[in-house]
Amino acid sequence: MTDRLPHEKGFHVSWDQLHRDARALAWRLQDTSPKDGWRAVVAITRGGMAPAMIVARELDIRAVDTISVKSYNHQAQSEPRVIKSPDIDLVGDGEGVLIVDDLVDTGKTLEVVRALLPKAHVATVYAKPMGREMVNTFVTEVSQDTWIFFPWDMALQYVEPYRGT
Questions:
Q1: pLDDT recorded at residue 155
Q2: 101 against 163, higher pLDDT
Q3: Per the count of CB atoms within 10 A, which of 47, 110, 124, 163 is most buried?
Q4: How many helices (H) and strands (E) does the chain have?
């Protein structure tokens, strides 16, 4: 069927669901932390910021930084490039550092991040099959052709019914 509505193969995530899933990620991560605990959380901006905040709170990690990797222009994926790096004095080579993102799709963004922080532990809330091997810990896997609609990308509005008026 070629005239599918955009939401038919979409996975809609509310703020409540994101919060629950990010807390579930934190619960999984508590058993994988280094002996001395995580030194820092690095959020991949922008999508990783909300999950990273929740994970940092749940695991009582006070040192939080960001790395900004641009790989999308609206819904079109392009070659990823770092436009903001974390504090190297804080993160070093990634030893004891937790990298958090909302989603791994193809894994191209994480290839760039892993090159900068090769010893870090990478965690995402959601994972697609093509990028799954780039992640150490995740909560939910979705199919590669599913588009995830995150709460920061949505607004409440009227939607035409699929059939009828």
A1: 82
A2: 101
A3: 124
A4: 4, 8
Is 95 within 8 Å of 69 (Cβ atoms)? no
Joined tokens for residue 108:
């191209």
Burial class (CB in 10 A: 0-12, 13-18, 19+), 46: middle
Give the catalytic positions in this structure: 101-102, 105
Percent of the chain's residues with pLDDT above 90: 77
CA–CA distance, 93 with 91 (Å, rounded to integer): 6
Residue 91 phi/psi, 5-degree rounding, is -100, -25
Count CB-CB contacts under 10 A for residue 112: 17
- Contacts (Cβ under 8 Å, ≥6 apart) of 152: 46, 47, 50
DSSP-assigned letter for residue 53: H
Which token pair is 33?
């932390």
